[in-house]
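Posted in: Structural Biology > Protein-Ligand Complexes

Title: Requesting predicted complex, 2-oxoglutaric acid in pocket

I'd be grateful if someone could produce the 3D structure tokens for the following input. Sequence and ligand are given below.
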Amino acid sequence: MDALEESVLASVWRQGGFAFCQLMRKCRSDPSMAEEAHDLAWEQLHLGDWHQVDCAWRDGYALACVYWAEELRRKGDHAEATRVLDMGLMMGGLAFRPRLNAAISSLSQASEPPSAVRGDDQLTVQVASSTSFCPFVLPPGSLQGPPMRTMAFPSIQKFLQELFAPGVPAILTDTMAHWPAMEKWKDLSYFHKIAGNRTVPVEVGETYLAEGWKQELMTMSRFLDRIHDPGDSTSRAYLAQHPLFDQIPELQRDIVTPDYCACGDGELHSINAWFGPSGTVTPLHHDPHHNLLAQVVGTKYVRLYSPELSDSLHPFSDPMLQNSSQLDLDKPDYERFPLAEKLAFVDCVLGEGQMLYIPPKWWHYVKSLSPSFSVSFWWRSS
Ligand SMILES: O=C(O)CCC(=O)C(=O)O
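-- Reply #1 --
Done. Output follows.
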């Protein structure tokens, strides 16, 4: 074992993971032990609150994934090996991320490209054009006020002075034309080709507040199928708020972090993918970060309410949902929430190649009007 592996095992040992460490040491002579070690670490990740899981266990889990995937590869099960490595990337710590990525890339070179799940013709279907609106109903009162402020490729100074410092939302145009994603992502077969056999977490259901909503792990190919055939709203699949670009570096090369994210302390918190069919809804909520929501493919309706209106938007009292409103904008119950009826908001249809600046704490509701791929850049400022 190398120095990094030894140091991670020493940390897991200090956390009481004696059996795990013994199994991992045995892996050298008996690689089949890796699966048992993996299962043990998996249990540890699921014992309590995710945020309380010690980093040592997350790194230990990732290491077990590396070993188990090697064993699966030796046995010729490349698909399962890739799934295990993806689980390591999604659930494991950062220490073995380069090893996991290297193993995935070596596996993909050694494997056949994923075979088409549907007919080839359908896999080359264009995801959407900015004019192809679907017939989804927008929340009452939408798009009736003055248009949202729009700036064409503002300088950093203008962005800082007119939007960032005063906390003013606005659409930024002409800032993404140079992204390779603008061309490449229009074609679903691209995702199929570079990531068809990769496992991704997908939200299934009407919204994360709806009954029956759940998260599922599925291969990208299966998810792409669900974009073609979304089914009814209760089975709608949304690859939402996932750091896909950490998981699949090829996709990271297709996007460019906007220079605006250097404003303030300039510490990038996360870059997330929001990829789904028409009709996905992210209910009214707010986040603590500055946000640039970049619309790469398709169109989305976005409605924003100022943080000053928070009380009238009736946040949930449950600590897990305190940043979400009880007001369902698609079926607003103004008898129950009368204060919310007359509140001022700004809204827009965010088109391909446009970014929306959402200042911290601004409430936002988002509905996709076509198959859509957006990227959010969240950054902090004290
Ligand atoms: O695009 C969406 O569905 C939601 C985006 C969002 O909530 C965010 O970027 O914070």
